[in-house]
Amino acid sequence: MNLASIPHYTSLANALVSLFGTSVKIARTDRVSGGDINKAYALTLTTGDRIFMKANAKENAAFFTAEAACLSAIAETGTIGTPRILCTGTDDGEEVGYSFLLLEYIESGKKRNDYFETLGRELAAMHKADTESFLIQADSETDGKNRFGFFQDNFIGARPQENTPKDSWISFFRESRLLPQFKAADRYFSDSDRSQNTKLLDNLEKFLTEPEKPSLLHGDLWGGNVLADKDGKAILIDSAAYVGHAEADIAMTELFGGFPPSFYDAYKEAYKMQAGYEDRRDLYNLYHLLNHLNMFGESYLNPVQSIVAEYVG
């Protein structure tokens, strides 16, 4: 995967001039609600163009280069809508420096009647797309290719997400998903919890299956990360992409309320899921609940403990 096509600028002014012309200025700035990690703005330019900007502290520029890589990967599959990436950058500012990401502004619209059916089919197409260009290939010590991970680490919410490639999905999910989260959350666990957590990690092969093929995942696919554009079609945003088991994306859609049955029916018609998915769903979502425990505190401890107990007693 080649990220050279995503420009990076050392000031917002330089970015706007390069993208829109030497006379361009910001005519209006509107704060956009949503998300508690970054500040978001709709910028109306003197050219009449409207663009979307995310901003954070200058030292958090990696949030945006990683997000640009994730959206670029999804766009590369040619299967489902994402905002067009304009650039990433940093700016010293007049008072304090900041980092930024500029994207196409998505004008919101009413969902089409077939909105969720189309989303299901398009997500299935993304999960069926080739994934080799999103991975670092295996080193000389391994026969074959690494199949799961991503060519760089990124973020899940405000926390780092490890994507070191592995040949095995189960190994990847253990070492790059659950284990880092358990370690980060250690202060919340009793000795009994730690014993249960270790038992789960040591026995993942009993509960998970290897996929028939690796899939590019959105990585954080809940309802808040899907928008309806002006034509009523679904647009994916705020991705934490990596190559994994397609089931992990579907499980995430069910964590916070789920999508309508028409979405799942269309998805399953277009992409045959392995038997027993329902038995694995909570284990995939344990990763996200652990991440919430690490970001937001012990209100998420009971759900984490309940899922661990569900699998190891």
Summary?
With 313 residues, the chain is of the alpha+beta class.
Features:
12 strands, six-stranded mixed β-sheet, 313 residues, two-stranded antiparallel sheet, globular, alpha+beta
Radius of gyration: 20 Å
**Count of DSSP H/I helices:** 9
Overall SS class: alpha+beta
Number of strands: 12
**What's the pLDDT, averaged over the residues?**
94
Overall body shape: globular
Q: What is the CA-CA span between the terminal residues?
A: 43 Å
What is the strand arrangement across the widest sheet? 1-5-6-4-3-2
The major sheet is characterized as: 6 strands, mixed
User: What is the beta-strand fraction?
Assistant: 15-25%
Tell me about this structure.
The chain is an alpha+beta fold and 313 residues long. The chain is built from nine helices and twelve strands. The strands form four sheets. Strands 1-5-6-4-3-2 form a six-stranded mixed sheet. The protein has a two-stranded antiparallel sheet with strand order 7-8. A hairpin with a 2-residue loop joins strand 7 (154-156) and strand 8 (159-161). Helix 5 packs across helix 9 (301-312) and helix 8 runs antiparallel to helix 9 (301-312). The chain starts with 7 loop residues before the first strand and ends with a helix.
